[in-house]
Every structure is written in structure tokens, then in C-alpha cells.
Write a structure and sequence with these properties.
4 helices; 4-stranded mixed sheet; alpha/beta; two-stranded antiparallel sheet; 194 residues
């Protein structure tokens, strides 16, 4: 909201309840960050970096017109999710699921260790079953400079491994108005023949 350092939006443009709920959830998770924005990078890139760290989405809600912040967490009841199926989906295009060989089976997170004052790395978070299936280690390193504690960096490494070691499907779904209320990052169930 700051006119000089921020994007210059009014306080009324922010969904305070979603930001407060996100802050409370991050506090409960012990998920603190230490980042400095000094105007050398675009503000949107800095916001994107924060969203990447906390695994969240920021969007303008179509019904309220306010900036809304939601964490991507498994904090939903499966039976309560919107179901998309043949009765409300017109078609699905660009369906793709990565092959086993495209998956990453080991993740290392680089972070800034506040105790030592130096850049550190986590021990590798590794999916041993996937290593066995693939026949070799396929590793990746991800930088999270806003993380300052080894324990949090290890949790984030496990989170990233789960996402990168799972053959998640991507596609474009054309549906009727039943999905109009879905927001970015919102969970739903897709029931569709192979």
C-alpha cells in the first residue's frame, strides 16, 4: 500500500481476512522469513519470491476485487471439494503427465543459516523408491534465501521433493459455470476416464 516502496494500492484493496489467516497459519507452522527488498529487483519479482518460499498464491478475487493471499496446503476435506466430471466438463485438452525419467528424486535446499551467518545446504531429501525405479539419483538444488533455520529448510526440501517426485498431471479443462467460483490454487476433484 505504500506509495513509494509499495504498489500504491489502498488498504481497502486488500482482503485483510485472507492475509491474517495466512499469517496465523505461517506462525503456527513456525514459518518465518528474513528477506530484504531494496528496490534493485522488481516488486512483483520480490512478491513472487515470498510466494515461492511460503507456497502460496496471491490473486485479485473476482467477486470482491481485493488482493487475496492463500497458502497451498492440504487443509481441505476431500468429500467437500467441487467434483469436475463428465456431467460438467465439456472437454479436456493438453493432458500431460511426466514420465518417470522426468521426475526429480532428490532435493537440496540452499538457505542462509542465521546461526553461522553463512549460506548452508540441507541434507538431501531423497525418495529412495523413486531412485530405485529410475536407477540413478536425479538431484536438484533450490535456493530459498529467506529461510534462516535448518529445520525449516529441511521441511521445505521435503515439500519440494513431494511436488517434484510426483507425476502430477497438467491439462486444460473446459467446464460449465460450476467451476466459476474456483480461485487460483483452489483444490477440486477431477473424475475422468483415462
Amino acid at each position: 500500500t505504500d506509495q513509494d516502496w509499495g504498489m500504491g494500492y489502498a488498504d481497502a484493496d486488500i482482503d485483510d481476512a485472507s492475509f491474517t489467516a495466512t499469517a496465523d497459519a505461517l506462525y503456527a507452522e513456525g514459518f518465518g522469513l528474513s528477506l530484504l527488498w531494496d528496490k534493485t529487483t522488481e516488486l512483483q519479482a520480490f512478491v513472487g519470491e515470498v510466494l515461492k518460499h511460503i507456497d502460496a498464491v496471491l490473486y485479485v478475487d473476482r467477486s470482491t476485487g481485493k488482493f487475496t493471499l492463500d497458502l497451498i496446503r492440504a487443509d481441505y476435506v476431500l468429500g467437500a471439494l467441487l467434483v469436475l466430471n463428465a456431467s460438467n466438463v465439456q472437454r479436456i485438452e493438453n493432458f500431460r503427465r511426466p514420465a518417470v525419467g522426468e521426475l526429480v528424486n532428490s532435493i537440496v535446499v540452499k538457505y542462509y543459516d542465521a546461526e553461522t551467518g553463512k549460506v548452508a545446504t540441507t541434507p538431501p531429501a531423497t525418495d529412495l523408491a523413486l531412485v530405485s525405479v529410475q536407477g540413478s539419483l536425479i538431484a536438484s538444488t533450490i535456493e530459498y534465501n529467506g529461510i534462516t533455520r535448518a529445520e525449516l529448510a529441511a521441511r521445505v526440501a521435503a515439500r519440494e521433493l513431494k511436488a517434484l517426485a510426483t507425476p502430477l498431471a497438467t491439462c486444460t479443462i473446459y467446464t460449465n459455470r460450476i467451476a466459476a467460483g474456483l480461485t487460483p490454487g483452489a483444490p477440486f476433484r477431477l473424475v475422468w476416464p483415462d
